[in-house]
Design a protein that fits this description.
47% helix; 259 residues; single chain; alpha/beta; seven-stranded parallel beta sheet; binds nicotinamide-adenine-dinucleotide; 14% strand
Length: 259
């Protein structure tokens, strides 16, 4: 399937590893020139080289923290008029809400709600004027099915989801779409880190912990980031202009519902 994205330009935030990297790779395979950001220069440059080597696309790495004004300015300077924006940032830590300070909440809201909104604000008018734009926010399955220990994530990401639900309907008339991708368990460093912590808590090996997670999913496995990237590229396709304001859950069917 030709997604009609040859020659388009994208910013993919927080993309040296994991789901962001997978989105960048999938878009680059479709002929999109990508700007990728992350805080760690070495990992980011290595990822840029790998994507370039595999796809032949132009890949510009921009080192910086996307949750800061400087980080966003640097990303936008490298690609002031993107056709595609994929919003992503690291998730907040788990914990008990009784221990979270105002500062903890503000950090989570900044990373997982406001950063995406500020990136959208910077690019959306240009997208509307050019009559093409695809914005994908990486949120979490926890938006639909909360995970109590991830209260900071549940709260911040749901705030973003509520905000973009309104904006998506305003800009759809200009062939600009905003949709959210909700990952369930995908095999990334983030998942491995949570598995290490859970394994230690329950006296299991990390392998056992990962296996338990896989077995509890209807697919009997966890997701492959490449599957996530493919879904992102599909939402960005030229032919996806009628997919507006949706929350696409990629969780192997873990959320149990009829529709
Ligand atoms: P990951 O740890 O594998 O990769 C995160 C990437 O983001 C890395 O490239 C890292 O360098 C970059 N990054 C993190 N914070 C950044 C910042 N402030 N500025 C710039 N770059 C930054 O994580 P992942 O599994 O790919 O997760 C991506 C998002 O999806 C996270 O918000 C995570 O909470 C969420 N999520 C992941 C899963 C999963 O199973 N993997 C499930 C639900 C939600």
């Amino acid at each position: 399937m030709d997604l009609g994205l040859q020659g388009k330009k994208a910013i993919i935030c927080a993309a040296s590893k994991g789901l962001g990297r997978a989105c960048a790779l999938a878009l680059a395979r479709e002929g999109v020139d990508v700007v990728i950001t992350a805080r760690n220069a070495d990992v980011l440059h290595r990822t840029a080289e790998e994507i370039r080597a595999e796809t032949g696309a132009t890949v510009i790495p921009v080192v910086g923290d996307i949750t800061t004004e400087e980080g966003r300015t640097a990303a936008l300077a490298a690609c002031p008029n993107p056709d595609i924006l994929v919003n992503n940032a690291g998730g907040p830590p788990p914990g008990d809400f009784r221990n979270w300070s105002q500062e903890d909440w503000i950090r989570a809201l900044n990373a997982n709600m406001l950063t995406a909104i500020f990136m959208i604000r910077a690019v959306i008018d240009g997208m509307c004027a050019r009559r093409f734009g695809r914005i994908v926010n990486i949120t979490s399955a926890a938006v639909k099915s909360p995970i109590a220990v991830l209260g900071l994530s549940n709260g911040a990401r749901t705030g973003l989801t509520g905000f973009v639900a309104g904006l998506a309907r305003e800009v759809a008339q200009y062939n600009v779409t905003i949709n959210n991708l909700l990952p369930g368990p995908f095999m990334t460093d983030r998942l491995r880190a949570t598995a290490v912590a859970e394994a230690a808590k329950h006296g299991r090996s990390v392998e056992e912990e990962l296996n338990l997670r896989a077995q509890s999913n209807p697919t009997r496995r966890v997701g492959d980031p490449a599957e996530f990237g493919a879904a992102c590229a599909f939402l960005c396709a030229a032919s996806s202009g009628f997919i507006v304001g949706q929350n696409l859950l990629l969780d192997g069917g873990a959320f149990n519902s009829t529709f």
